[in-house]
Amino acid sequence: MANFAKPSAPRFSVDVYQNEFLPEGGRDVHAIVTVTATGGGSVTRGTPADGTAAVVIMVDCSGSMEYPPEKMRGAREATAAAIDTLRDGTAFAVIAGTHVAKEVYPGQGRLAVADPATRARAKEALRGLSAGGGTAIGTWLRLADGLLRGSTAAIRHGILLTDGRNEHEEPAVLRATLDACAGRFTCDARGVGTDWEVKEVTGIASALLGSADIVADPAHLTEDFTLMMEKVMGKEVADVSLRLWTPVGVEIQYVKQVAPTVQDLTARRTDAGTRAGDYPTGSWGDESREYHVCVRVPGAAVGQEMLASRATLVRPATGGEPETVLAQGLVRAVWTNDLAASTAINPQVAHYTGQAELAQAIQQGLEARKMGDVHGATAKLGRAVQLASVSGNADTARLLSKVVDVVDAVAGTVRLKAKVADADEMTLETRSTQTVRVKKF
C-alpha cells in the first residue's frame, strides 16, 4: 500500500483483498480493491469554500408537482434548506424544470457565490416557484451543464428532484444528454411521491456518478436535501479515476463498484496509456468505497506467479499541475497444487459477489412481479431474502418484507404479498443497489 497525497489534501489509500492462489491452468483472478480517503479538513457553512465547489439545484416544477400541494411546498422548503447548507464561497444556481429549463437564481447564465446576502436573495426567488407544464429532464441537465462549465470550481455537482416521468422528451434525447454530461459534473437524483419512473432516476444518478433515492413523503424532502448538500460540501477532491494496468496477455473481465452501492463501471473505461485504462469514481470527501476487479490471466504451471494488475488511484492534470498518483495496490496470481489454498474464496470477494447478486435478484424479481410471473418473482425475491439474511443486510431485508411474506429467510422461502404499496415497491427497487459493508475478518 502506498500513499502519495499532499499533506494538505485528504490522504488516499488502496488495500487489495484477494485469494491470489489458482490451480494449475486457472485463469480468473478476483480482487476487492478498497479505496479510502481520510484526513480532509472539517467543513461547515462558515468554512470558506475558496471557489472549489459549484452546485446547481434542479427543481421539478411541472404541473403534477401541485398534486398534492405539499410536493411543491416541500420542494421550495427543501431547496431553501439546501441553500442554507452551502459553504461561503460556493458557486450555485437554481433551475426550475418543466418541458423547458428556466433559471430561477441568479439568472443571466451565471452562478452566484454563496454568502449571507446571496443565500437570502436565492430563498426569496424560490417564493416564485409554481407548478405548470410538462417534464423534459434533459433540458434541465443541459442548462445545469452550461452553468457549471462556466465555473472554474473543481467540484461540480447537481441535485435533481422530480415527481414524474420524462414524458415530454424522447428517451434517446435524455440518454444523449447524460452521455454528454458524464465526466463534467456529478448529480444526485431524487424522486418525490410515487408517480416517477425508478429506472429514469437511477439511470441519471448512475450515469453521473451520484446517488438516487425515493422521498415518498414530501415532508421528508428538507431533511434529505440538507444531508445531500452536506455531503457535497464535504467533497474535496474531484475527477478521481481508478487506473488498472495489466501485463501482456491479461484481460480485464469487469470492474464494479460494490460499496456503498453496486455500479458496473466496465463499459466506462477510457484508455490511459499502454495496457492501462481509467474507470471514473467521481468526487471524494472523507469516505471509503470498494471495487470488485476480475481479470483473466494466461494459464500457467504450478509454482509460477505474476502481477495480474496494478490498481492506481489518479487525479488528472489540472490548472498547470501534473497528474497526481494518490495511492496504489497490486493484484497477484500464484499457481499452486494445494487444493485448499486454490479453492478458498476470499471473504471480501464472497461477500460483495453476494451483494451484487442480491441487487440483481431484487431487480429481476420485481420485474417478474410486474409482468405477472408469480413463479419467477417468488424464486428471485426468495433468493434475495436469503442473500440479505446471510450477509446481514438488515435494511434490504426489511424492505423485502414489505413485498413478500418471509416463511424461511435462511432457505429463501417466501410468498408474494397480495397487495403492496407503490411506495414500498419503489423504495425496494430504488435502494436495491445499496450494499452493506463486509464484516471484518
SSE order and pairing:
Elements: E1 2-3, E2 11-18, E3 21-22, E4 28-38, E5 53-60, H1 69-85, E6 91-97, E7 101-105, E8 112-113, H2 116-126, H3 137-149, E9 155-162, H4 171-181, E10 186-192, H5 198-207, E11 212-215, H6 221-233, E12 237-245, E13 251-259, E14 263-264, E15 270-271, E16 276-284, E17 287-296, E18 305-315, E19 324-335, H7 339-343, H8 347-370, H9 374-391, H10 394-400, E20 404-408, E21 413-416, H11 422-430
Parallel strand pairs: 3-19, 5-6, 5-9, 9-10, 10-11
Antiparallel strand pairs: 1-19, 2-4, 4-17, 6-7, 6-8, 12-16, 12-18, 13-14, 13-17, 15-16, 18-19, 20-21
Précis, in short:
The chain is α+β, with helices and mostly antiparallel strands and 441 residues long.
Characterise the protein shown here.
This protein is α+β, with helices and mostly antiparallel strands and 441 residues long. Helix content is 31%, strand content 31%. The chain is built from eleven helices and 21 strands. The strands form four sheets. Strands 1, 3, 12, 15, 16, 18 and 19 form a seven-stranded mixed beta sheet that branches. Strands 5, 6, 7, 8, 9, 10 and 11 form a seven-stranded mixed beta sheet that branches. A hairpin with a 4-residue loop joins strand 15 and strand 16. Helix 1 packs antiparallel against helix 2, helix 8 runs antiparallel to helix 9 and helix 9 runs antiparallel to helix 10. It is globular, with a radius of gyration of 23 Å. The two termini are 19 Å apart.
